[in-house]
Each structure stands twice: as structure tokens, then as C-alpha cells.
Amino acid sequence: MNRLLSFGHGYSARALAGLLLPQGWHIVGTTRSADKAERIAATGVEPLVWPGDDIGPALRKATHLLISAAPGQDGDPVLARLRHDLAQVASGLAWVGYLSTTGVYGDHAGGWVDESASLTPATERGVARVKAEAAWRRLASDTGLPLHIFRLAGIYGPGRGPFAKVRDGTARRIVKPGQVFSRIHVDDIAQVLAASIARPDPGAIYNVCDDDPAPPQDVIAHAAHLLNLPLAPEIPFADAEMTPMARSFYAESKRVDNSRIKRDLGIHLIHPDYRSGLASLLEKEHR
User: Fold this and answer.
1) Which CDD domains match (predicted)?
2) Complete domains list, the chain, with CATH
3) pLDDT (tens digit per residue) in 200-258
4) Is the pTM for the entire model greater than 0.90?
5) How far apart are CA 194 and CA 217, in angstroms?
6) Residue 93 · residue 65 · CB < 8 Å
């Protein structure tokens, strides 16, 4: 039996589980919260509160690992606690996936980047991800761990779209000239991970994004159009009141190339741009 151990079993991991469970996989998902453990169990995934519960048996039985947990002040939380244990089980694993971010590339002034681009992160979060990627690659080099790195663009999907803010009038169209972001629907993240599991290529790095990098104000405008609601006024970036976290996202502008997932994994995107993705979300709401 295929057994997936999912560290930090969150939004993207749940979407992957939705594809694997019907195929007979056994999935164990970790969380820090007992409340979240109950919600994980309701989806058919075996929950494990970790750190806390003994993770040893699940790790030794796993055939596949997915790491979604973000790095903290002490680096990658999985490596910080389990590096030795991972080294012990590395030879028995068929696939390991690490979910990173396109933030590792930093700012490219709206230019295109592929997986060979230099890593010059412009935020603390990006720096932490670069360090975490390097630490996982060192472990893979030392042990033969079958590591695959997935650099995810901005994630959206059910429960994570602009419609709620457009409806309640809190959506803002903040305009910074030349600013573009890449995005990815969670359904496409799931299909990329599943395709990689079916076609392992240890050492591979994949950008996971759609075909249409776009200014953020265009996404808000299209959501308003779909809802037939008034368009929020444009606000110049320099005048916008934003949290430091929100403002940091505007420190980077780039167009992320997704050719590799199509060429190497045979991916045909379910939602190749934000327009089809938003239309699908609204359709699901209506159903």
C-alpha cells in the first residue's frame, strides 16, 4: 500500500489527498492543533498532532513524504527534529516533495524566471525558503533521499479567492506600475504533485504556476465583473495603507515560467489563468 506522511497537512496537501485517497492511499497528516486534527480526520486522513505524538511509526511505514511546513526562526521544523530519522528511512522512500515558493527568486522587475534563475530573495520569508531548500538538498545529497522541490506561486482556490472582499466592499485595487504576480489554483497544485509522484525524478525542481502572470488589480476587477458589482477605485501603491506583510509582497515583481511541469510531467492546467479559475470558483458556489 502507498502511504503518504504529510507534514503540515494544510490547504495544498488536502487537495492532493483528495486525489490520492480514492486510489486507496493511506495518508497521515500532521498538525500542531488538536482541533485541526479533528477536521483532518473528517476528510479521511489519519491525523497526528506533531510535535507531540510519536511520529516514528508513521515515518517508518511511509512510502512517500510531503513537506508543507514553513521554515521558522530555527530553520525547517521537520529537519530540525527529524534529520537523523529521515536519513535512516531515506532508502525506503519512493518520493519526497518539498513545497517551497517562487519568492526564492526575488524581484526581477517583471521579467521571466525559470527554475535555472538565480535565487535572490527580497523578503525574510524568501531568504528562509532558500535556506530550507538548501538544507533539504544537502540531506538528499548525503542520503539519497528522493527529493523534489515545488516552487509555488500565489495560491488561490475554494475559500481563498477575492469574492468575499469584493462582496463586502473591502477589496482594494492597489496599483504599482509594472507589478505582476504569478498564481496557481490549488487543483493544479494537486495534479502537479500527483503527476510527480507517478513519474519520480529525484533532484527535480518545478515552478508551479499558471500561464498568465497579471497585475493584482486586474484580478480584483475581474472578480467584480463576474459578480456584477461596482469596481473598487484604484489606489496608488505609494498612498495605500498596508501592513508590513502585505507591503512586502509588492517588493517582488516577476513572471514565472511553467514550461517544465508541462514538458516533464505532461501537465495540462485545469485553470490556465485567473479568469478560468475565478469562473470555476463562482460556479462551485452556485452549485
Assistant:
1) SDR_a4 (cd05266)
2) 3-156+184-211+256-270 (3.40.50.720)
3) 999 999 999 999 999 999 999 999 999 999 998 899 999 889 898 888 889 899 999 99
4) yes
5) 32
6) yes
